User: Fold these one by one.
Assistant:
Number 1:
Amino acid sequence: MTGRGGGPRSRRAFRRAERRLVGGVDSPVRSFRAVGGTPVFFARGRGAQLWDLDGRRYVDLVGSWGAAILGHAPSPVVRAVREAAGRGLSFGAPTELEHELAERIAAAVPGVQRIRFVTSGTEAVMSAVRAARGFTSRAKVVKFAGGYHGHSDGLLARAGSGVATAAIADSAGVPASIVADTIVLPYNDLDAATERFARDGASIAAVVVEPVAANMNLVPPLPGFLSGIGRLAADAGALVIADEVITGFRLRRGAVAPEYGLRPDLLTFGKVIGGGMPVGAYGGRRDVMETVAPLGPVYQAGTLAGSPVAMAAGAATLDALTPAVYRRLDRTSAEIARSWTERAGAAGVDDLQLARVGSLLGVAFAEGSPRTYEAALAVDRRRYARFFHAMLAEGVYLPPSPLETTFVSAAIGPQETETLDRAAARSFRSLGGSR
Ligand SMILES: *Cc1c(COP(=O)(O)O)cnc(C)c1O
């Protein structure tokens, strides 16, 4: 691990933060533990660029983990936020803005007959699981190893090595009794799912799945996997929850699951639909959603849920996401992938695995593209850390973890693409071949 990272002011800010904030951060991945060095502290962002406390400028390829799909401080969104904030930050009572964002989501996602806004993706998935359990009167939930669905107790579990028989909690503080109702299966393995459903199908309330796994580097679904999962669930009377917190409104306007032949009963959203404000949402089949209070017996509530400022930011973001913006995101991302692949080849880097799904890029150093969680865990993390720090020194802010996905924003233009090309050329040269 290198000892680099933030400049003198960032290092000072981090030392001060560490004395009060746990680990100096509010979310673990920000701590740079996975790549070494100290985190960069940011002062501001504009478009595709970020400025740190030391005045250094970066092309941002994290984009607040995907939320900043338009880049930083896009004027229509900032304007909408200012207007909403000027009328009051929160009333704990309904406003018309919730309906505005709900209509935009429902218009783009045919399966969303009813929706509920919450304040994070974690809450969205946790609540969707509760609704599914309430609706089916069943307890078990299936998730896939390497799928991240927020930090609620029951979903913080992955498979032990090899066959997933017992779910093991990933986190201290999660009682075994809670993950006992979580079944963890290997992603992209329809046979394993078929076998498990044959055994336990009748007690499964729901299957939660990221249609494109974007929290174990980037692992696209194999052909037939998602549609197969949909069939298994339907035959067992279990619901499917598509966790589109990353993919929703990023890969296309709406949800991506249907493009892979999966018709989810419920969907969860976050990140993009809040345009940088804290938002999550779950929605889907009317009969399932109507089990949620005040209409049904499933309780779920939130003091700041449907915050006017967040709703306004979300609606303005979705309005800005025109078909032309999605085409541009795709073009830019393809260009970056092409340039990096070429630059790696020229530098003799023989182990770069570059995956791309729309504006999501998976950067891994391994012998082959990761297709499973085990493979994702086995990528060369030290080489990623070296690449990360080389790119950082060249003014590119990548995800500070080899297991995260890289996010391209619509604010990245020809000038930034050129910066990225030059930075990659130098970084790959400094990295060299894998042995
Ligand atoms: C980020 C993420 C979540 C959790 O959202 P938070 O807003 O961080 O709570 C859930 N599911 C997926 C797929 C995510 O990427």
Number 2:
Amino acid sequence: MSSKRIFLSLSQQSGFEHEYVHKALDTNWITSGGPNVDEFESSLQNYFDDESFVTALNSGTSAIHLALILLGVNKNDEVICQSMTFSASANPILYQGATPVFVDSEEDTWNICPEFLEIAIQDRIKKGKKPKAIITVHLYGNPYKVDEIHAIADRYGIPIIEDSAEALGSSYKGKKCGTFGTFGVLSFNGNKIITTSSGGALLTNSKKVKEKAIFYATQSKDNAIHYQHSEIGYNYRMSNVCAGVGLGQIKILDKNVKSRRENHKFYKEIFRNIDGVEIFEVVNKDYFSNYWLNTILIETKNQKNKDDLILALEKANIESRPLWKPMHLQPVFEQYPYYGNKVAEKLFEKGLCLPSGSNITQEDKNRIKEVIINFFK
Ligand SMILES: *Cc1c(COP(=O)(O)O)cnc(C)c1O
């Protein structure tokens, strides 16, 4: 195979990453925490432009874990989680020894379903336990039904951890994703909107909570001359070298969102004339998606299925993937409660993610288009 591989989701560089990384090396700030980390946090705080306090961490998964700890989630607690997501949304519930309760998606946004969320909350309360937190996800960058979901959570007084790992640059009714929950979570993994190689952030609206997050993320050192610990600590702080990459990346955050949204237009144009294939789109103007990944559903009445398309693309050295397999179908989670009506199952059965990186060129698009058009001919 001679053509270069087109990956599902890669970022591009601004060119400024070197400068900040060199600064870390030249000043010997090769540590967790440091000046690049502080500057990265304040750049993000400026970007969110509201009351958000940002804690830079070594991954999005760490951010979810710390959010659960800060909410006091422990063994014997239950935490509701959107079933259709990446496993990193749910794994930290088990790190705490708590029980995940999974909730189905709805068809408009593919995210957590308000009706089943309320059914789940009521049923868990009836069974004797009010859920301690709800983990919501803006899947593929597409905002969930923020107003409905938060109204339900507020009615029962349950805090929301908003997994915005895929949704940096997305917004709902003009307000940025990541700022709706009691906690917001970002990821800067290599495949996300901007990257620090590996990294994440926790958003809160309280300076005190941010300080507590840093305390836990840096091994819970009490205020003493010697190392004194009265709580369990974690090694979750972002590295100063990685934050240098992030400072270069944040300069092109808007540009990356623009490229991904252009990819969306490209796919929309292709699938407009293909029968039995539906490209995911936000339902109305309240929802602004970064279109982190472009996704399609291939109707089962169609002669072709998603697995064949994956193979056809693979043959041309182009990466594609099925949608996230719902958590309640995963061997590691199938023993836990689930509330829903098979919406996530159906999406998983018919759905596919197409190459959507912010580095995709016109030449790449031509290759992708050719395979897709030939496949459905
Ligand atoms: C990537 C991702 C995470 C985890 O982020 P990491 O930085 O890889 O730990 C969490 N949730 C979702 C939905 C993600 O896509």
